[in-house]
Amino acid sequence: MALKVPICQLCWVSPAPTPSRDPGERWSFLVGQPLKTSFPSAVPGKEIFQRSCVIVSRKLSGLEEAMRIRRARELQSSVKVRKRPPLRRGKVSGKLLVPDHIPRPPYVDSGLLPELSSEHQVHNDEGIACMRAACELAAHVLDHAGTLVRPSVTTNEIDKAVHKMIIDAGAYPSPLGYGGFPKSVCTSVNECMCHGIPDSRQLQDGDIINIDVTVYLNGCHGDTSKTFLCGNVNEPTKRLVKVTEECLERAISVCKDGASFKKIGKRISEHAEKYGYGVVERFVGHGVGTVFHSEPLILHHRNDRSGCMVEGETFTIEPILTMGSIESITWDDGWTTVTADGSRAAQFEHTILITRTGAEDLNAGHICGSAYWSETHLK
């Protein structure tokens, strides 16, 4: 579950400068308050150069643009694709109760939004065992939630089922009460990028839905999400979902002790661009463990951020791909974030543990080294 800084102090990459801002103003690339940097006026063309870099960086490559045009034509020509109304919010029911004997994360009792922890979460053997148990439970709950996805089921019903399964296991649903989030799971339908609040809206035939589950078990958070198909989904949307999952797999394949974090964004971007999909920059992965969200921030797009992975640390990789614009709009509930152009989005998320030779996918229960997550395996 990746959340944006202005509302929840989590995992948000600030946007590039816009013409409405001062010419010399930049926004911090990392979590925190906007960082202003005035360029020296003594350097001719400095401001123009900076603006040009921003514009160029946002331009699509020729291949990506061609793929977008092709996909748009496929959508227009397909008789199976029908126009759908934009996502509308339903009625949100009251918060579900958690038995008193179940331990809660510190932020629940404080009622305050926790700041992003600057510490990487590196675990000893006991901590690793705790993380494995939490992530295994989260994956099990997510699998069960996926079996409920079908036309006419409401996302509120999915939330109730997830909530019950988590508390029956003696765990706490981490999203509940986090910065005021009112539910135990995030359910993001169609054009919703992330953080959808479960409500009374019924799923429709042809929808897609990302279900994001995080559990707090024995002092550790286990975090995972998956995009599910509801009924008869058209082929272009199926392709989006498939490629998004492949992006996650390819990102995991580059992870090991000493590897650069920026390799993750490079690998995801390379694969997404082959199919003309946009990689959302605004939401990122994060360290996870005894704290819900911490450094390192995992950027899913191409970047030059420094830093290398360390054996024993855990973090999430959770790319969001779109069929159109990567820009987003957040509803006035402060959470639900949809694509600016109404195009569909898909997301997959796993928590991984860095090992000496690769990475252990804590939600899948296997070791992901170069021999396992090879390019041949992924084709």
From TrEMBL:
Binds 2 divalent metal cations per subunit. Has a high-affinity and a low affinity metal-binding site. The true nature of the physiological cofactor is under debate. The enzyme is active with cobalt, zinc, manganese or divalent iron ions. Most likely, methionine aminopeptidases function as mononuclear Fe(2+)-metalloproteases under physiological conditions, and the catalytically relevant metal-binding site has been assigned to the histidine-containing high-affinity site. Its EC number is 3.4.11.18. A divalent metal cation 2 binds at residues 223, 286, 318, 349. One of its GO terms (biological process) is proteolysis. GO terms for molecular function: initiator methionyl aminopeptidase activity; metal ion binding; metalloaminopeptidase activity. NCBIfam families: met_pdase_I (TIGR00500). This is Methionine aminopeptidase. It comes from Musa troglodytarum (fe'i banana).
